[in-house]
Amino acid sequence: MKKTGLHALFDGYDVFIIPSKEESTLLYAPLLKKVFRVSDDLGKLIASQGFSLDSKNEGLQQIITAFDDAKNDAIDPELPNPVGTVNLSLELTRDCSLSCLYCHAEAGKNKNMPKKILDAAIKHAFDRSKEINANKLYVSYVAGGEPTFKWRRFKESVEKIKSGEETYGIPSRLSITTNGYFGRTKQKFLCDYFDSINLSFDGMKEIQDKNRPLVKGGSSYDRVIETARYFSDHAKSFSVRSTITQDSVNLMPEIVNFFHEELGTNFDIAFEPSFPLGRAAGSTTIPLQESYVENYIKAMNVGKDLGITVATSANSSFNRIVTSYCGALSLFSFVVTTDGIVTACEGDADGLNYAYGQFDGANFPFDNEKKDRITKITELPKDCLPCFAKYHCAGDCPNTRLIGYDHCTIQQKLVQYNLEQLV
What is the C-alpha to C-alpha distance for residues 398 and 383, in angstroms, rounded to an integer? Predict the structure, then answer.
């Protein structure tokens, strides 16, 4: 893990000493909700002596007083998702209409969820929701291939969930990530039934067609842009998710302008860097993290001028104080694969890393030893303890840790960017 700055403690609370601009230093105490810009000399004094009450340095005494007062309102890290919720994610198929260069699930396999598993998964999710008195069942279609590819099974799943709402008296919230390569029937159905639609769409025609071609080759752009326009006009909540490669990283501000020209402002944009997993393993198109941060900030500011929210997971994490990166793992999301494997992660299409259950023909018995192992995976790595971004990224996604990759540069630079804006 890459680390910058120094670490100190104030009555047991982390304080990070971060080199800043113009010969200054940031003092950041995340659990005390305090950040100060101080001189380099004061930063060095704290790094060497800590927060000594015997010091005659007036600036240090002011910092000590401020930190001491802040202890009354200190905060504890929380789970990313609220306890008492059930998160059902259905991997209906591993097949797909596109052959994206960086697909982490390596979609395109002719594997589909049998009706028996689908019915049992939905029943289990509603039963569990009733058992814990959940006020809503959260359902997502993200894992595996294109959720709408097997259209009859997809519609059947939505109808089953809507029927369950009436039977159990528990409303659902439906969200989907889709490639958008389809016509008006599917477009309208998604807008009618889904509370949130996330469209995977990388930008201008040359980028989209290079990154997200059809399975047999050819352009996906024309049909996907039409889907995007329809979603922008009719979806309850609509966002575009663009994966950034080294080929497109310098075009991020231009991509924001492009989407604005095509779709207006009734949507959000989520940028994410590609990373070496699935089809992108060993790829030379992974963007340099320094370039990604530089261009993301430019794109975010373009979005502000245009009235469009531009986000990335590393920047969104600044608004949370956590010690577990992903609520899906720490709360054991109920992700059901086409084979009936239960995994805690929507990115674990084969259930190789986070599986904790298996459909037995009637139910989904869970393995508590495997759940304990998953809990350990979500714990903050020891290498991260001195890092000033640790309460925001919580050690980054465990999927990246498993392949020996990290987004430390992106996390640290964006946390520091936000701190600089605050002071």
Answer: 14
